[in-house]
UniProtKB/TrEMBL annotation, chain B:
<dbReference type="GO" id="GO:0005886">
    <property type="term" value="C:plasma membrane"/>
</dbReference>
<feature type="transmembrane region" description="Helical">
    <location>
        <begin position="222"/>
        <end position="244"/>
    </location>
</feature>
<keyword id="KW-0472">Membrane</keyword>
<dbReference type="GO" id="GO:0055085">
    <property type="term" value="P:transmembrane transport"/>
</dbReference>
<feature type="transmembrane region" description="Helical">
    <location>
        <begin position="194"/>
        <end position="216"/>
    </location>
</feature>
<feature type="transmembrane region" description="Helical">
    <location>
        <begin position="74"/>
        <end position="97"/>
    </location>
</feature>
<dbReference type="InterPro" id="IPR000515">
    <property type="entry name" value="MetI-like"/>
</dbReference>
<dbReference type="Pfam" id="PF00528">
    <property type="entry name" value="BPD_transp_1"/>
</dbReference>
<dbReference type="InterPro" id="IPR035906">
    <property type="entry name" value="MetI-like_sf"/>
</dbReference>
<feature type="transmembrane region" description="Helical">
    <location>
        <begin position="12"/>
        <end position="36"/>
    </location>
</feature>
<comment type="similarity">
    <text>Belongs to the binding-protein-dependent transport system permease family.</text>
</comment>
<keyword id="KW-0812">Transmembrane</keyword>
<feature type="domain" description="ABC transmembrane type-1">
    <location>
        <begin position="74"/>
        <end position="272"/>
    </location>
</feature>
<keyword id="KW-1133">Transmembrane helix</keyword>
<feature type="transmembrane region" description="Helical">
    <location>
        <begin position="154"/>
        <end position="173"/>
    </location>
</feature>
<feature type="transmembrane region" description="Helical">
    <location>
        <begin position="109"/>
        <end position="134"/>
    </location>
</feature>
<keyword id="KW-0813">Transport</keyword>
Amino acid sequence: MRRARTWLPGLLLVTPSIILIGVFVYGMLGWNFRLAMTDKHDEVSEGEFVGLQNFIDIWDQARWHLSVRHAIVFTVVFVLGALVLGWLLAFLMEKGIRGEGTFRAIYLFPMAISFVATGIVWRWLMNSGTDERAVGLNRLFDAIGLPQWQWFRDPDWGMAAMALPAIWQMSGYVMALFLAGFRGVPEELREAARVDGCNEWGVYRHVVLPLLRPVTLSALIILGHISLKVFDLIVAVSGKQIITDVPAVFMWVAVFDSHDPAKGATIASYIVLSVAIFVIPYLIWSVRKERRQ
Amino acid sequence: MTAVRAGRRGTAFAWTRFGVLIAFVVIFLIPIYVLLVTSFKPLTEADPSQAWNLPQTWTTEAWQVAWEKLAPGLWNSVLLAVPGSLLSCALGSMNGYVLSKWRFPGADLLFTLFLFGMFIPYQGVMIPLVQLLVGLNDLTGLQGVFYGGIPGLVLAHVVYGIPICTLIFRNYYVTIPDELIEASRVDGAGMLRTYWSVVLPVSAPAIAVVVIWQFTSLWNDFLFAVFLTGPTSWPATVMLNNIAGAQATPYSQQMAAAILSSVPTMLIYILLGRFFMRGLMAGALKG
């Protein structure tokens, strides 16, 4: 009883948050899954339980296939692009460089801007007009003799172009993560490797890079979960157009235009599952790691 | 001999490095150039052939129109982001304090469950959230307050901000020596008294990080706003998207509006970048 008296006040103080998280996160996730398992395909019907029928039926829709494919292309290009560029910038700066503060500030500032504002500029930059109608990058490319592109309107590679603004916005963040990672490698370890006869490249390969693995994993998780739910950027660049449809936009359309709650909930459930599948193991891993320390 | 060669190679590498970094600075600044230059152009220079040129006559015409269109949204965003970030801060601070210094059985598990809330795609809760807020409107008789109003949007952001705010405060409070808390306890102070007289006075850095983080995410949010607000309560992001989405809006006005909507977060970034960075790092579970 005495022990309870020491921890009970703490529990009471966080109780409001526990209730809020319980209701708004877990309760609503459950509610959403429940809705996805009904046939409530309009605003008024009650919705009978249909099991996983909606989850299967949605694969019959061409638009769903398209949006899943788009999300995959976007995710691969965005995650790899931001990871590689962020790593490169950090690698070039890690040993200290004159004006480092300025470089960092410039690479990072896109993070402070909303995806909507980013989308507006990049829609101009990636305008698909060519030759005399070209604005944005096409005009610039034309002037310096590079080919002009369809950018996000390209039927095959449109989503790869769509990843460019996202890379612009997020690679500074990845740079900051890696820079902290590089700086966290103790100088003695590098020195020890040099004494053992490693050249600089060897030091990176055998000492620095292995120690960067946790940072890389964090960056991967953060970029991945941003990517799978991407919404603002797509809407700001191309609206609800089918050529750049992704699950999050499809869900929006299902809720507001098709007035089909069950379908919207089904798509939302798929988005949650796609993120949960790698975030849950990551969270368990990082909490365990922290406890060990 | 080898030392000299290594030195020369070192200098060459240093210059290449510098050159590459500068090249990326130029690429990173291209969108900013476009935003600024286009926003100051008069309509007569809206021709594609002059797309990249500086304005021949600089004008703030587009800025004035953009301001008129965007002002209500900017005000809504202030009403959203200021109370929202302060409330998040209060909740996060209390949770972080308990989870680091006044732990109860199962606190670790609870913390993990909280953290998952940080990563859930909000699409997964959106439809029930809309239904709940509509229900609250009906229940209280306050139409357009919870669903379709700023208070509902604040509520959503505060709730879904609990995980990250708790994380930042917890990681910060872990660095406060347990002896301080213990000493206060020996003096007969209870949990709240210790929080008030020992913990809160040293919390300023974490408060700054959380307020800045939450302000930026609330200000820049689009998803919640699109689902939960209506024309009178649209924040700046939604209005900006509507302005830019209208075919008739000239580029100069779109760009001016995009800049206007970004001014508060840009200012925060420029003036308080240090704290902004720490928030970013906390997002990586690094503390």
